[in-house]
Amino acid sequence: MFHSKAQKIVSYIVFGIYVILLIWLILFKFSTNFHDLPRIRNINLIPYGETVVINGKIFFGEIFWNILVFVPLGVYLSIFKYNWPFVKKAVPCFLLSFLFEIIQYVFAIGASDITDLIGNTLGGIAGIAIWTLFKRLFKERFITIINSIGLTVEVLAVLMLGILFVANR
User: Fold this and answer.
1) What contacts 24+ positions apart, CB below 8 Å, involve 18-27?
2) In degrees rounded to 5, what are phi and psi of residue 22?
3) Pairing state between β 40-44 and 53-54
4) Does residue 43 contact residue 112 with C-beta atoms inside 8 Å?
5) The model's pTM
6) Using one digit for the tens of pLDDT, what is the confidence trace for 20-74?
7) pLDDT tens-digit readout, 100-139
């Protein structure tokens, strides 16, 4: 699958940075202080229920972001485990999201929500589909293109977070 050892190393580095940012986002809400974390222990088992309804209307922004943040997981699972069937790639997306929801509940650092679980899993599935599309469109270069996109987004995200961190000091 990989054309060189360097390409494989870059893929693991980009994926590792993504996982760190994902954990920091979902579990720590980009907080730099444990005391700033919300103390919420709540479970919502009604899909698209109260947690995404604002002023009587569904707020699609949260649903969109839940999907978007898990797209890279589906993409990189497909890169690293390209010979796995679709379901075997989709299950870890569900399980990681489920683990995040459990951790949020156990440590009271966020609301556990079935809507998040659905959105995150759909994001992972979208990532698998994007991997398939890129593989067909870009053939030999698709991993390089995916790594370039991933690295660019991560650099921009880290710069933005750095600016916010400095501005809020």
Assistant:
1) 18/72, 18/73, 18/76, 18/150, 18/154, 21/154, 21/157, 21/158, 22/69, 22/70, 22/73, 25/69, 26/69, 26/100, 26/104, 26/110, 27/100, 27/103, 27/104, 27/109, 27/110
2) -65, -45
3) unpaired
4) yes
5) 0.89
6) 999 999 998 877 677 777 787 888 888 877 666 666 677 788 889 999 999 999 9
7) 999 999 998 888 889 999 999 999 999 999 999 999 999 9
